[in-house]
Every structure is written in C-alpha cells, then in structure tokens.
Amino acid sequence: MSIGIDKTLEIADRVERFVREVIVPYERDPRRDHHDAPTDELVMEMREKARAAGVLTPHILPDGRHLSQRETAIVLERSGLSPLGPLACNTAAPDEGNMYLLGKVGSPEIKERFLKPLVEGRARSAFFMTEPAAEGGAGSDPSMMLTTCRPDGNHWVINGRKAFITGAAGAKVGIVMAKADEGACMFLVDLPDPAIVIERVPNTIDSSMPGGHATIRIDNLRVPADQMLGQAGEGFKYAQVRLSPARLSHCMRWYGACVRANEIATDYACRRHAFGKALVDHEGVGFMLAENLIDLKQAELMIDWCAGVLDSGDLGTAESSMAKVAVSEALMRIADRCVQVMGGSGVTGDTIVEQVFREVRAFRIYDGPTEVHKWSLAKKVKRDWKAAHGG
C-alpha cells in the first residue's frame, strides 16, 4: 500500500535521526561474537531504544500492511546509514525478507505464531535454502535442491544439509525449503530444534549479521503439516515472492551505508592536507569523490525504478536482477574509492569505511552473484529475440 510521500519522509527522517544520534555511537560497542558480529544482547538493547523512539519495523504499519516498495526504499536507505541501523530498526536481512514473505502468503495461524514475533522485533529468523556446494546442492540454482521432505501421517519429515544460513545461530523462527515428490516445499519451524544441528559457522569477510552464515545438518526433522507454507510443490513460487524484493532491499540498505562512507571520506579529504592543499583539491582525490556522487545517484535511480516495477504487481525478476548487478557493482566502486581516499585510515577500524567495503564485497555474491544475474538476463535476451522473430 502507499501512504504518500509526506508521511514516508516523516518516517524516514525519524529513522535517520535515530540512526545518526542513537545507533552510530554503538558502532564502538565491544559486544561482538568471535566472528565480530553484534551479539543478540546488543541487538535487543538497540531494538528497545528503537521501540521507544517509534522506529522499530518502520516499513510495516501497525495494522500489518507494508509500505510500497518505493516508500520502503526511502525508509530502508536511511536505516542503512550505520551497519547497525537495520538491526536496530528491524529492517535487516534475513528478517525483513522473511517478514515480507509471511505477510504475503502466510495463513492467519502462521502470521500469529511466526510473523508476529518478527514484526515486534522480539525474535530473529533464518531462511534455509542454500546447500553445500561440495555436495552438489542448491545454491544459485535452487532446482538442484537435495534436502528432502516426505509426508508421515499429519507431519512431514525433513532430511538434508544447508550452508550459508544467515542468522541460524540464535534464530527463533526458521523457514526451511525441501524437495518432495510434488516439488519444492517451504515449512515454518520453531528454533532451536534438536533435529537442526549447526555444524559450523565459518569466518566470513562480512560481520554485520548476528549468527553468521552457518552450515546446518537436518536429521529427521518432524514438522506438522499445517506449518507448510501453502501447498506441496509451491516452494519455488514462494521463493520468488521473497527473493526479488529481498534483493532490492539489500540494495536499499547498503546504499545507505555507502552514503555514510562517502560522507566520512569527503570529510577526511576536506580536512586532510598534503603538498600544500586539501586532499579534495587534488584531482586524483576530488575526481574519486565526484565519481562517487555519480554512482550514488545512478544506484538511487535504479532502486527507485525497480521498486516501481514491484509496486506495479510484477514479480520483477529481471528488473531485480538488473538492480542487484548495477547497484552492488556501483556500491563496490564507491566503497573502494572511500578506502582509497582515506589511505591508511581507510583500512583501519577507526571508521565504518573499512567494514562497509567488506560488507559490500560480500553483497556482490549473496542473493545471487553478479555473473548469475547476468546469465539470467542473457537468457531473457535470447527468449525475447526468439519471441520477436518467431523462433
């Protein structure tokens, strides 16, 4: 639904003030796990402050309706001004995408039991789709799914392994994808569950997401039949409902982070002097900051365009692929230039610039690497050509 630009900007402005004034100081907070991700204690403390400020889950209205994608973009971009902002405001992945999916297709019972605690910011969630590459499981190609589910009375029994499951450690709600004779299925599960075993949480280049990216073993997980999302065989359809908006909301959040990184690099370049003048007055530096402005504007426009397509009711698969490629690559250039402008200071933890660089580098891979999206778009080019020429 649309609430109008004035109301949207009012929400976004409140989110930005909260992130800049309350959350930015938390960037120095030492409460981190051994992967340098924020602990749940830190997350919940920030969320209580967001709740008090009226900016918790700001993209979902009190009656459960979501803002339009264009309005969501304006709000989520502001929440991303700190790597901690999406966690504090409850707009972070994977929860934001999971809330969107359950809000769209969940039954009233599923919404009450699983969606409500997510919207209230009292629980985290995980989306169990990707599987270990070494075993030939599903990654960018979900049709390769090896995790199985079979009916057993009024339950389904799930077995398999999953990999890079963001936030699994510490999550309370899980959405598990598995393959039945009818096709892919999705199930809602309470976490933790003894049948879902975290084998390892590898160290990764990014560190913004609590729980890391775990490798999971699922041993005879029994799920009541009424906890299936929709009908058996509809899992891939629901995955598309989730994935296109989720790709775009990643673009929104990391766009905000790069806006802030560029602010920090610009401040550094204007204050730091070398060879008789401010760094910004040296063309090599000033031109990098000028290029950042160009890339930021192009990313903003791409996000807005793709959001408009989604708002039209189109699944926007091709458009979200285009946005994912264009925005992630533009943000990578921006983050890299910010590090370069700041020199030695840019590779330290003294500012968030170094972290933003790492996070955006990871963003070029998750929710589909750039090359997978280009391959998908190339197939569309061929299909469109054949359709136009009667092939």
From TrEMBL:
Residue ranges annotated for the Acyl-CoA oxidase/dehydrogenase middle domain, each copy included: 127-203
Cofactors: FAD
Acyl-CoA dehydrogenase/oxidase N-terminal domain sequence ranges: 9-121
A Gene Ontology molecular function term of the record: flavin adenine dinucleotide binding
Transit peptide among keywords: no
GO BP annotations, alphabetical order: fatty acid beta-oxidation using acyl-CoA dehydrogenase
Keywords, ordered alphabetically: FAD, Flavoprotein, Oxidoreductase
Pfam families: Acyl-CoA_dh_1 (PF00441), Acyl-CoA_dh_M (PF02770), Acyl-CoA_dh_N (PF02771)
Any one annotated GO CC term: cytoplasm
Domain Acyl-CoA dehydrogenase/oxidase C-terminal: 233-380
Quaternary state and interactors: Homodimer.
Family from the record: Belongs to the acyl-CoA dehydrogenase family.
Record-given protein name: Acyl-CoA dehydrogenase family protein
